[in-house]
């Protein structure tokens, strides 16, 4: 009986409160504060739950956990938001002990040009008076298109429950003259600033990273291949997503000129990068690619970005193939990454990485190939075959067949060596036939599929198109033009000697006694900003050593 009475009391209280809110309780009605409508479903969708003329309700300016609002603001206007603190929503379900952290983050998506003396400022406080007098709150300024701030509410806990000391966080945004630190007088609506703001008890919904986290593998005249860093490393800790989910990363490619504009105002703004005048993004192309049946990615000639998850040398990364580019042109690529909440990858917010630059080659002497069946780790430019100038798929297949044919005899020989026998009978207790076979395959691929460059360097060998590394290339490839070869790294030869039974008698040229041979056929890995030698396989095994100049 007592339970029912109690429930009735709670219910009746609830009903009166709700009625109170909906009927006539509007604390802002007599103040000059514009109420902002939150976007219910995150990005883009800005559902208007309050139509003009209707009575405003207090809830209509709420900002919800993880869900960014999108708003426009001009001089002389104030935006106000209320975030309802839920102590239970914190920290992925762990009950907070001392305090509730609220992460405020945001991006400027668009701002008027040449507004260096205007700042978009937010004020936040648990005290409702901030709505009238922003100065009583803490403040933060959007810089380089980005803002982040932290609000902390202590927790009152009893043995059975914990509640936040404050129940609401109030946020006001306003344009400020950075010289006078005064609110901007009203300006015309063409001076519109568009921004996103989010409050979450779990994470910064908008983030940025000073690392580029994407590497240019190679380019040719009309395409480029980029790869992210090791995805496995950060997925394990607390994020809830599969490292094989290709929607994790996206790439946006800008012209150099447009990126200069972008970097001036919104260097750190994910929203500006996503909405800006990019030439192409992997977002635009994901569906097109999915519908183009099973054609090789190498056959795409239109401006597009295709994604691929690759597992390679113990790490998983996402590759981006950008096709349809112009020759001798510098492009700028921005990598973005989704972040995850308790439901997995989230479609709102995310991380913006630092930009990378790449320049396409001026001639078609080299062609970028990847996705080979046998030499699966080959992903670089090779001398263009005069037999298949316009068909990179065919070119890739030809190179692959040459390497596979060279490997065929070796695999027979490997069967004659007792490597997979009992551990005692093996040539080495730690190396297996598989290690040897893999080292030999990588080595064969590197020496039979030369890496090509059109620029000269002290580390590269100039090759006359009639005098290639080997006769197979002269015969079956017949390069279109002279080129520079980036020699294989000598470490691949060392790995081969180390991983294979001594019965094979593999030996590598000794740099002390056969210097000429060495520099005609291999080179050393050096820590420069471009490749000094070509390595296939697990590159973490490369031993960096200084080249002896004497
Ligand atoms: C509210 O603002 C408008 C213009 O921004 C102004 O005309 C009006 O007088 C203000 N009302 C009050 C009560 O301050
Ligand atoms: C902000 O303004 C831009 C153009 O001025 C418009 O396209 C956009 O829909 C506006 N956004 C909101 C949330 O009102
Ligand atoms: C911004 O300033 C630059 C140089 O200071 C000028 O070239 C450009 O036209 C200006 N843009 C606008 C929209 O006023
Ligand atoms: C809120 O701020 C006003 C003005 O500074 C102050 O008078 C009031 O005591 C504050 N309220 C609380 C609960 O701190
Ligand atoms: C939780 O704690 C608050 C304040 O300490 C108290 O008012 C409330 O009744 C408690 N709720 C429950 C379900 O124990
Ligand atoms: C900011 O204030 C300074 C000093 O009063 C003034 O010269 C400048 O024009 C103001 N800027 C804007 C955008 O109002
Ligand atoms: C990639 O990350 C995983 C997990 O941290 C690690 O085991 C692996 O060695 C890394 N791969 C490379 C090449 O560093
Ligand atoms: C791609 O397809 C998904 C689901 O089929 C859809 O939600 C998304 O809007 C599409 N994207 C584009 C760019 O068409
Ligand atoms: C994909 O395959 C379908 C049927 O097999 C064919 O009609 C369509 O033209 C193909 N699309 C492309 C882009 O090759
Ligand atoms: C991870 O996300 C999936 C849905 O994508 C969900 O079913 C699962 O419960 C989540 N796991 C955790 C630990 O939050
Ligand atoms: C390119 O070569 C591949 C493999 O021989 C072939 O399947 C494809 O049809 C060729 N593409 C063109 C456009 O000729
Ligand atoms: C390449 O070699 C051929 C034959 O030896 C020779 O005729 C030609 O001049 C060489 N080309 C260059 C650019 O050295």
From TrEMBL:
Designated name of the protein: Mid1p
InterPro entries from the UniProt entry: MID1/Yam8
Domain of life where this protein originates: Eukaryota
Biological processes per GO annotation: calcium ion import across plasma membrane
Record's keyword terms, sorted: Signal
PANTHER family in the record: AEL197CP, MID1P
GO molecular function, one term: calcium channel activity
Coiled coil feature spans: none
Signal peptide residues on this chain, from the entry's feature table: 1-20
């Amino acid at each position: 009986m007592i339970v029912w009475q109690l429930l009735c009391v709670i219910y009746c209280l609830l009903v009166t409160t709700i009625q109170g809110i909906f009927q006539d309780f509007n604390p802002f009605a007599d103040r000059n504060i514009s109420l902002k409508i939150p976007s219910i479903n995150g990005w883009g969708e800005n559902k208007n739950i309050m139509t003009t003329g209707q009575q405003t309700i207090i809830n209509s300016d709420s900002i919800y956990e993880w869900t960014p609002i999108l708003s426009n603001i001009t001089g002389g206007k104030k935006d106000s938001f209320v975030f309802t603190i839920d102590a239970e929503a914190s920290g992925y379900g762990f009950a907070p002990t001392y305090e509730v952290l609220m992460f405020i983050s945001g991006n400027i998506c668009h701002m008027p040009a040449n507004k260096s003396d205007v700042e978009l400022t937010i004020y936040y406080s648990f005290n409702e008076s901030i709505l009238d007098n922003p100065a009583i709150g803490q403040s933060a300024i959007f810089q380089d298109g980005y803002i982040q701030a932290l609000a902390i509410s202590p927790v009152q806990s009893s043995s059975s429950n914990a509640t936040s000391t404050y129940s609401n966080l109030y946020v006001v945004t306003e344009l400020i003259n950075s010289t006078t630190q005064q609110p901007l007088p009203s300006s015309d609506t063409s001076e519109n600033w568009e921004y996103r703001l989010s409050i979450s008890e779990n994470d910064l919904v908008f983030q940025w990273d000073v690392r580029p986290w994407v590497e240019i593998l190679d380019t040719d005249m009309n395409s480029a291949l980029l790869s992210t860093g090791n995805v496995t490393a950060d997925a394990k800790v607390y994020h809830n997503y599969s490292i094989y989910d290709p929607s994790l990363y996206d790439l946006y490619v800008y012209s150099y000129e447009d990126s200069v504009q972008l970097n001036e105002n919104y260097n750190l703004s994910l929203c500006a990068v996503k909405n800006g005048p990019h030439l192409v993004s992997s977002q635009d192309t994901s569906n097109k690619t999915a519908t183009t049946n099973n054609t090789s990615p190498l056959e795409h000639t239109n401006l597009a970005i295709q994604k691929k998850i690759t597992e390679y040398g113990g790490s998983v990364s996402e590759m981006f193939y950008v096709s349809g580019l112009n020759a001798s042109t510098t492009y700028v690529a921005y990598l973005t990454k989704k972040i995850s909440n308790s439901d997995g990858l989230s479609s709102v917010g995310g991380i913006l990485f630092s930009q990378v630059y790449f320049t396409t080659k001026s001639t078609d002497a080299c062609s970028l190939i990847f996705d080979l069946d046998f030499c699966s780790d080959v992903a670089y430019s090779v001398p263009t075959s005069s037999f298949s100038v316009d068909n990179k798929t065919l070119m890739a297949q030809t190179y692959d067949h040459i390497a596979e044919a060279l490997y065929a005899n070796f695999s027979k020989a490997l069967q004659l060596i007792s490597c997979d026998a009992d551990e005692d009978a093996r040539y080495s207790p730690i190396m297996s036939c598989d290690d040897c076979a893999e080292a030999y395959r990588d080595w064969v691929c590197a020496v039979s599929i030369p890496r090509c460059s059109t620029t000269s360097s002290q580390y590269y060998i100039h090759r006359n198109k009639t005098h290639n590394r080997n006769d197979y290339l002269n015969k079956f490839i017949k390069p279109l033009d002279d080129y520079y070869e980036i020699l294989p790294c000598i470490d691949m030869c060392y790995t081969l000697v180390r991983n294979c039974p001594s019965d094979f008698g593999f030996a590598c040229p000794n740099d002390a006694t056969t210097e000429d041979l060495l520099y005609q056929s291999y080179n050393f890995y050096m820590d420069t900003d471009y490749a000094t030698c070509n390595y296939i396989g697990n590159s973490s095994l490369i031993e960096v050593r200084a080249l002896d100049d004497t």
